[in-house]
Design a protein that fits this description.
The complex is a heterodimer. Chain A is of the alpha/beta class. Chain A is built from 12 helices and 10 strands. In chain A, the strands form 2 sheets. Chain A has an 8-stranded parallel β-barrel, surrounded by 5 helices. In chain A, strands 9-10 form a two-stranded antiparallel ribbon. In chain A, helix 10 packs across helix 11. Chain A is globular and about 65 Å long. Chain B has a domain of 235 residues: Glutaconate Coenzyme A-transferase. Helix content of chain B is 28%, strand content 23%. In chain B, the strands form 9 sheets. A 9-stranded mixed sheet of chain B has the order 18-17-16-15-19-22-26-27-28, with helices on both faces. Chain B has a 7-stranded parallel sheet with strand order 5-14-13-10-6-7-8. In chain B, strands 9-29-30 form a 3-stranded mixed sheet, with helices on one face. Chain B is globular, with a radius of gyration of 23 Å. Chain B starts with 5 loop residues before the first strand and ends with a helix. Classes of the chains: A alpha/beta, B alpha/beta.
């Protein structure tokens, strides 16, 4: 599945911020038609975003998505009609509570793809849960639609719906975060976390990102380009992880070559979870354009250091 | 003007063979022109035998005593930046006393002086401007071509010192604002209410002017230490209430740009310098005080700490960001040309062992016997335009109006081993990477890398750098492309660059650091379309309208 460490929100009604959105290295950009656009500018934003999708080159490595308005508002349907084009990679659906909320978008999307002669199903969907009801339905929603590649959480609205308080430890939405990641992984899709709103507090952002990464999340939304680098640093495998994975892979290859059933690295047995993890680390590293050292160079390095292999 | 004879110079620009009877030498290459004269210019032998004090009671008395006359040349330094009160004070006095036809030869000018300079030019007090730079309303006035007798000569910092030493600029009276002075005229800039760190832009003026008048608001007991400018060069000392506004002399706290685009440019500049092998133990560098340059310094600082390497020295335009590097040992020594903020001034005072100032001639004079810019590994510079020949404009805007200071741009570009130009691809509706610069200040032969938010171009003249990029692993998000590609991207967004509506008059000569002419600036006219008037610059039109 695609690397989605960072997802940058770009206000859909700001012509100055849209063209450079792809320059800052975010894996995903979300041109926003929903919360960052007030009702009187919905039409402007929709026109601007649909035009930008056609003419702006956001770069080769970025997934271009739009956060539409919910279909329950007068705007959602028109958003989909106008933005569907060959350059659109995905749609974020806000305030999802039921499978129906996703499937209606799916139907409309298919209709528009047929109408515009586009490949059916190429545009992916992402559902955002922002209510208690939505969170509790996450399990069903996560597996309801083939286009759905990720689910995410909207902290502000959710906290308000719960009657809780936003705090740096995120206690109000802690269980919701866990339910969402469980639902995502059970359905084999990605879990993407909400934004960290104080974009001057890089330490706080780093702590929160570390926490959600440990929970199993695949990425995090951001509201300012300066947050991207911190998020990537947290999600990228470390040099030690990469080197260890290369050694694991080498041990497996070697065992295969010798037809040996038991695979060992040093004094440690390599079982299936370790092998899978190593593979994932290497896949992530190469997707994130992090150089992967060769086995020979690692061996040489270890021989030089005191410990040896 | 039509009778001028023209010649095409070394970068393909048409420049006149002579102007006002003075022969001009066309630019032929960054290091190809040797000094014309055998000896340095010599000022008059002035002396004051048996004098116990050089203090005179009023500015006018000092002016009278040195014998300033109509038509002479006066000079100033710009260390007080936008808090300067000296130039205004002197010009006001000269205006009051009815002086005419003077030549103004400052090292640079600032907005706080604009009103006075414009009034003096319009009133005939000043007829000619040599050196420095013009911006804002003053730049527009020069660009209108209506008020000065002969073209303004725009020189780099090093070029100005060269011109003074060669006698191309003959300074009759240098007025030196001194934050600290004693009664015989030993001057420094470290102490006093108007402390600005250094007054080294005045070193050449003090040595080569026929007369020197020091103006201070801080007279101290003899002897004033350090003796940055020595008593033997100073004719008179005038004590006044105030020579500068401390709040405007130094910025309290310079801030790094918040623009994500500019931050990306700065970071990518550091990354490309590193990829090209220039971020290494024992390196040195110069980066200025612009938003991108400050961010460059900060990101370089981070990278050096990560890599565990130190720089032997750095040169500024010194700011808190360089001082931080000195203090945590990332940089061993700082050389300051100008101090831009309070931290820089404090550091010069507190850490004189490792933080020194340097005469501008020693910094950048190509015809001196040694200049620091030649030792630079990396310099990071801005620009108002870069063209496909890697030529850089820092004097005019794309609309042709003189607006930007050229500073040490062409000096450092020529000297440094790696010259990086950091620019956004476009500003407002103007493309920055263009086919042809409106005006050329720094020749493309001296520029190595152009970093924009959408890609990085390496000068094809630097085959070694291109080979290096073939050898190293370039990260995916660092887009290496040609300047042609960048220019097309820029034009795709802004449309094709529109040439200014040039008039016939030459309003400024861009003198390269070696004294040759690299380009000229012509007057700019408003544009008329049938009934409608389109002007690139509203205020320029206002000047026209006020006159008609």
């Amino acid at each position: 599945m695609r690397l989605r460490r960072s997802r940058l929100y770009v206000p859909g009604n700001n012509p100055k911020m849209i063209p450079p959105a792809g320059l800052y290295g975010a894996d995903v950009i979300s041109l926003d038609l929903e919360d960052s656009v007030s009702p009187e500018y919905k039409l402007d934003a929709r026109m601007l975003v649909s035009e930008a999708l056609k003419v702006v080159d956001f770069g080769p490595n970025v997934e271009v998505t739009v956060r539409i308005n919910p279909l329950s508002t007068p705007f959602g349907r028109w958003d989909i009609r106008q933005i569907v084009c060959s350059k659109l990679d995905g749609i974020y659906i806000p305030k999802v509570e039921t499978c129906e909320d996703v499937l209606r978008v799916d139907d409309l999307l298919t209709e528009m793809e047929e109408k515009k002669g586009l490949e059916i199903g190429r545009i992916k969907l992402f559902a955002t849960f922002e209510t208690a009801k939505g969170i509790l339905n996450a399990k069903e929603v996560a597996g309801c639609c083939g286009r759905l590649e990720g689910i995410t959480i909207g902290a502000e609205d959710l906290t308000a719906d719960l009657g809780g308080e936003r705090s740096s430890d995120g206690i109000a939405i802690h269980t919701s975060r866990q339910l969402v990641v469980l639902a995502a992984k059970a359905a084999g899709i990605q879990a993407i976390d909400t934004v960290y709103s104080d974009f001057n507090d890089m330490d706080g952002l780093r702590r929160e990102t570390e926490t959600i990464k440990k929970m199993g999340y695949d990425g995090k939304a951001c509201i300012h380009p300066s947050q991207i680098e911190v998020i990537h640093e947290v999600f990228n495998p470390t040099q030690e992880e990469i080197e260890y994975s290369v050694r694991v892979k080498h041990a497996i290859d070697e065992a295969k070559e010798h037809g040996s059933g038991v695979i060992a690295l040093g004094k440690k047995m390599i079982d299936r979870p370790i092998a899978i993890r190593a593979e994932k680390v290497l896949a992530r590293a190469s997707a994130a354009d992090i150089p992967i050292p060769t086995w020979e160079s690692i061996k040489e390095k270890m021989e030089k250091s005191e410990g040896g292999i | 003007m039509n009778e001028l004879e023209w010649v095409v110079n070394g970068i393909g620009r048409k420049v006149p063979k002579s102007i006002d009877g003075k022969e001009l030498i066309p630019y032929s290459g960054p290091f190809s022109h040797s000094p014309v004269k055998d000896h340095k210019y010599g000022p008059i032998l002035g002396y004051v035998a048996d004098q116990k004090s050089e203090i005179v009671s009023t500015l006018f008395e000092a002016i009278q005593k040195v014998g300033l006359k109509d038509g002479m040349t006066i000079s100033f330094h710009h260390h007080f930046r936008n808090g300067d009160m000296v130039m205004n004070m002197v010009i006001d006095e000269l205006e009051k006393e009815g002086f005419k036809d003077l030549t103004l030869a400052p090292s640079s000018t600032f907005p706080c002086q604009e009103e006075t300079i414009i009034r003096a030019i319009k009133g005939g007090v000043i007829r000619k401007v040599e050196g420095g730079s013009a911006r804002g309303e003053f730049g527009r006035l020069v660009s209108s071509g209506k008020y000065l007798d002969s073209p303004m000569v725009i020189r780099s910092h090093g070029g100005r010192v060269r011109a003074i030493e060669a006698g191309d600029i003959h300074i009759d009276v240098a007025f030196i604002g001194a934050p600290c002075a004693d009664e015989l005229g030993n001057l420094n800039a470290l102490n006093g209410p108007s402390a600005c760190g250094t007054i080294n832009f005045s070193y050449a003026d003090a040595r080569f002017a026929d007369h020197v008048i020091a103006i201070t608001d801080n007279l101290v007991e003899y002897p004033a230490f350090p003796m940055s400018i020595s008593q033997e060069l100073v004719d008179y000392v005038v004590v006044v209430d105030k020579i500068g506004d401390p709040n405007k002399i130094a910025s309290g706290e310079l801030r790094i740009t918040k623009s994500p685009t500019r931050l990306k440019i700065a970071k990518d500049a550091v990354r490309i310098a590193d990829l090209l092998g220039y971020v290494k133990e024992g390196m040195n560098f110069q980066a200025g005080a612009g938003g991108i340059s400050l961010a460059f310094t900060e990101f370089l600082h981070q990278l050096m700490k990560e890599k565990g390497i130190t720089a032997h020295w750095a040169q500024g335009g010194t700011t808190r960001f360089l001082v931080d590097m000195l203090e945590d040992g990332t940089v061993k020594k700082l050389i300051t040309g100008q101090a831009f903020d309070v931290a820089a001034i404090e550091s010069m005072k507190e850490n004189p062992k490792n933080h020194v100032d340097l005469p501008i001639g020693a910094y950048a004079n190509i015809h001196g016997k040694g200049c620091t810019v030649n030792k630079l590994d990396i310099v990071v510079l801005g620009a108002s335009e870069v063209d496909l020949g890697y030529n850089v404009n820092t004097a005019t805007l794309s609309n042709g109006i003189i607006a930007e200071p050229v500073g040490g741009h062409s000096d450092t570009a020529a000297g440094a081993a790696l010259t990086i130009i950091t620019v956004p691809l476009f500003r407002g509706r103007y493309p920055v990477v263009v086919e042809n610069c409106t005006t050329v200040v720094t020749p493309g032969e001296t520029v190595d890398v152009v970093v924009t938010e959408r890609g990085i171009a390496v000068n094809p003249r630097r085959e070694d750098l291109l080979e290096r990029l073939e050898e190293v692993r370039v990260p995916r998000d660092l887009r290496i492309c040609t300047l042609e590609e960048l220019q097309r991207m820029a034009y795709d967004i802004t449309g094709t660059k529109v040439e200014p509506n040039w008039g016939d008059d030459i309003v400024a000569l861009i003198e390269y650091r070696d004294g040759t002419i690299i380009d000229v600036v012509r007057s700019v006219l408003p544009r008329y379309y049938d009934d409608a008037v389109f002007v690139d610059d509203r205020n320029l039109f206002d000047i026209e309208r006020r006159e008609n």
